[in-house]
């Protein structure tokens, strides 16, 4: 079940470095892309860095709206991850092409992708140099939710069902799935 | 065996989001810390973003030297990862405290931690605003190596022995180990 995550704990959704889906909407249009380079930057308020290629339609929508949604897909969604990561919303309607369903969340400024297990609504901070020089964006979380089968208090559980595990991009359509949870202390 | 990695493929060492160890040396002193927030930013030349806390001694040494070493530890090294991540080199000699061995690599500007499976020497780009506002550094790789049991052409292999698998930080000393490799295409 999708449950709210306390904002100051929401950076944890992304702390283990999973691949993400980024959605954004502006002026009646909405798009979604894959982004592997999404990383926490601060805890409270939560900030993350997000790399969005210069020609990405989702980036254009996010900049126009000033907001985006970061979300964590599962190994069961690999065809969607690859699909939205290798096509452009300027050419195809990714939502219908890849049969992507949306969560019903009226407060979100862009669609939440159903089947994901963590979601964060974030606003773009004003860092034009970073966008221009590096395609890098600094965003601040303003709301977050998680599937309580995968995260507890924003923290990855140690009993995640195999089909709900998150994935990390190795290169070129190859991913590594989360394995065992271990404790150093 | 530690083998060189072609520079334009070296971003791959870090692409799946593993926790890293960062070492730096200046004026005869060397230190090492853990950093979970290390992410590729560009391919060729390879650039990465690195978050280093304001009071970190390794950060001070890296800024003085203008260089650092990023490296990927394994699940077998969790006590070192936690140890260097929860102590300060201003208080203790981490190298002796945690019995950290070094690779023999004369070309590197700081020690390479033995037992790691990927290493990148990088120089700090001049972005003082990022360091001050976010503790964020942009670095550019200038040399890289990998353990050929774990990476091939910089890319995570699909037959990594369990004891050499890389780990991702969940939160508070809990890590998730790399599991199965899957292909979306």
Could you characterize what this model shows?
Two copies of one chain form a homodimer. Chain A is of the alpha+beta class and 185 residues long. The first copy, chain A, has one domain (2-177): Electron Transport, Fmn-binding Protein, Chain A (Pnp Oxidase, Chain A, Roll). Chain A has helices spanning 57-65, 78-85, 94-97, 128-134; strands at 2-4, 20-26, 29-35, 38-42, 47-51, 67-72, 102-103, 112-113, 118-124, 136-147, 151-152, 155-156, 167-171, 174-183. In chain A, strands 1, 2, 3, 4, 5, 6, 9 and 10 form an eight-stranded antiparallel beta sheet that branches. Chain A has a two-stranded antiparallel sheet with strand order 7-8. Chain A has a two-stranded antiparallel sheet with strand order 11-12. The mean pLDDT of chain A is 97. The interface between A and B is large, with 49 and 49 residues.
